[in-house]
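Quick one: structure for this chain?
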Amino acid sequence: MTDPVIRALSTSDAHLFDALPDPLGAREGHRRTRFRPDWKRVALRDGEVVARGAWWGGADDSEPVNINWFDVAEGEEEAGAALLRSAPWQVELEINLPGGWRERADLRAAAEARLAAARAAGYELLVERFLYRWTPERGLPERPGRLRFGAEADDGVFFDALRRIHSVTLDAHALRAMEEGGLDKAAQEELDFFHWCPSPREWWQTAHTPEGDLVGIHIPAHNPSGPTIGFIGVVPEQRGRGYAYDLLAECTHLLVEEGAEFVTAATDQGNFPMAANFARAGFPVVRERLNFHPAAGAV
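Got it. Here's what it folds into:
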């Protein structure tokens, strides 16, 4: 067997990316995603495409922020690993899978091949997540009416709230950021993401009790693929009262009032309280995602 040849694509040969079968339905999941041809790469063996990866970022990004389409042909895990290792960008890898993929042997086998390739390339699993998509036929979640919502122009207010929220968090990305740089790093990464989103800063809102006590924040947003629940967070002293649902309902309403015809969202699978809130608000799970990150020293 010959060694795989890794090839970066361009507008003239971008069609090669479509040469592999799509057993996990990635194409449907990315129907609104815009990929740059020169951020796509394939691995060929004897002239046949046996692995592919699409790196992705925002319209103004000079480098990709993640890999969110990665496939390998049956038995080609090493070619997939070589494809990942060869890339000039070491960024997070997202493997998006159909909901309940472990329950079907064909989906499980296809998924596990991709997971094996990622691990062989030096990537480590960070977290498994649920991906949600609300549509109007689900009905808007009822607003409980317990909180007072309002815009806040001072980023410092959100930074302070994020530090408090992440001081007791179940979110794997925030926990990793705190391991690397403490609460300030975790809060700043969230703020940087909110500012990166191509949606108005004026949408960010704080939530208070009628007595004026801060409950939390919610960030309705647009990412490059459409309207999304950017962030829901309750400060530690206000937890246990079900306020995350209030924030989620308000966030959904605001996006719809701004013209959203669907709303996406995600949460870590281990965050059982937030998953329950999404179910209560009428957000069905449409996909699952495994987030991998490059291990220290991986090449």
